[in-house]
Here is the input.
Amino acid sequence: MPKEVIRVDGEDKMVREDTAKAFRGVYWAILSLAAFLLIMVILFFSGILKLASDGELNTTPANVERNSRP
Here is the structure.
């Protein structure tokens, strides 16, 4: 069975190919989750800052609908 080298705690370990793929898969999953959370936080705070800069924090969807009708 083919072997691959992975780095664990600063040491190189020789493991089977499927174990190395699983090891890398866990890191990709954690990295993807962290990136998703970072994007969500950025979008959340950008929306809050936009609301705060408009000066109309008490506007409800019903009021917006009533004011936009001709």
Notes: The chain has one domain: 3-55. The longest helix spans residues 17-54.
